[in-house]
Amino acid sequence: MSAAKEHSVDVAALPEIEVDRQPELLVLATEDDGPIGWVVLFPEGNFWLVRNSCRTITHGSSLAVLTSFWANVLDCEVGRPRLTSGAL
């Protein structure tokens, strides 16, 4: 079986799909290192956490678990991302 050829895809080229709800994107950050990971928070309340350093993905049950337990374990803040003025 031959491997599929890899090709570049532009996100803007993907079709829009209508949904009733969408997840929130959150960022994990430290004062010294900046963003250390990302979180997809689903409308139902559970989340997937992706850490940059070890490229691991972790599932959690609630925003409370994320902002108390995981923020403490990773010694970071959890917040909504905002692009810096120079990034636009």
Largest sheet data: 5 strands, antiparallel
Count the strands? Answer: 5
Our estimate of the beta-strand percent is 25-35%
* CA(first)-CA(last) distance: 44 Å
Oligomer: single chain
Along the chain, the helix and strand elements come as EEEEHE
Briefly note the structural class of the backbone: mainly beta
Cα gyration radius (Å)? 16 Å
Name the helicity range: 10-25%
Silhouette:
globular
| Structure annotation, total helices | 1
Order of strands, main sheet, comes to 4-3-2-1-5
Question: What number is the mean pLDDT?
Answer: 90
Spans where pLDDT lies below 50 across 5 or more residues: none
Descriptive report:
With 88 residues, the chain is mostly beta strands. It has one helix and five strands, in the order E-E-E-E-H-E. It has a five-stranded antiparallel beta sheet with strand order 4-3-2-1-5, covered by helices on one side.
In short:
It is built from one helix and five strands.
Structural features:
88 residues; mainly beta; 1 helix; 5 strands
Secondary structure layout plus pairing:
Layout: E1 24-30, E2 34-41, E3 47-51, E4 56-60, H1 63-73, E5 77-79
Antiparallel strand pairs: 1-2, 1-5, 2-3, 3-4
